[in-house]
Amino acid sequence: MTRTDGAGPPTERRRVEHVDTDASGVVHFSRYVSLMETVVLDHLEEQGAGLARFGELGADLAVVDLQVRYSRPAVYRDLLVGEAAVEHVSGARIRVAAVLLREAADGSRTELTSGTITFAAVSPATGAAVPIPPTIRQTLRGTPAHAPRHDSAADTAAGTARVPGAGTTGAAGGAAAR
């Protein structure tokens, strides 16, 4: 996706390509998740909390929850705009909201898909949950879109628990690696 800066929330723009669609030219439902992940990971990178920074600090990110709401379909050659915002940061987890919109030639936008991706910080070597490095936690808690909340007992406990079935998105591998 191509980054654009300006007033309002950070956005990413991308044209729907043939590879994104099914035989009828409609974007396949699975592509929305990939596009949302790209928007979210790019947003974290811009905040100084991307996969490379986690790696430098001895941690990785694993997706532990994904929520997606489909509102309208996108079709071949639509211009998609993606936006992301950090919603919650706890001791071991980060939840980021994402929305994909269609932008018309007149600049109007229609929401297509929205949802959240929750990541847990994990050890690249063992896959065990670890605390989010303090510098990253503080950086993300300082982002304007962050709604302050107290760490839950479950998130604090997750600092020592294995994250079951979590696919990593970083150097440790996984289907979502970019």
From TrEMBL:
PANTHER family: 4-HYDROXYBENZOYL-COA THIOESTERASE FAMILY MEMBER, NOVEL THIOESTERASE SUPERFAMILY DOMAIN AND SAPOSIN A-TYPE DOMAIN CONTAINING PROTEIN (0610012H03RIK)
PROSITE patterns tied to this protein: 4HBCOA_THIOESTERASE
Region Disordered, annotated ranges: 141-178
Organism whose genome encodes this protein: Streptomyces polygonati
Gene Ontology MF, one: hydrolase activity
EC number: 3.1.2.-
Keyword Hydrolase tagged: yes
InterPro entries: 4-hydroxybenzoyl-CoA_TE, HB-CoA_thioesterase_AS, HotDog_dom_sf
Keywords, alphabetical: Hydrolase
Enzyme class, broadest EC rank: hydrolase
The protein, known as: Acyl-CoA thioesterase
Lineage of the organism: Bacteria, Bacillati, Actinomycetota, Actinomycetes, Kitasatosporales
Compositional bias annotation for Low complexity: 156-166
Gly residues: bias regions: 167-178
SUPFAM superfamilies (alphabetical): Thioesterase/thiol ester dehydrase-isomerase
Assigned protein family: Belongs to the 4-hydroxybenzoyl-CoA thioesterase family.
CDD domains assigned: 4HBT
Annotated Pfam families: 4HBT_2
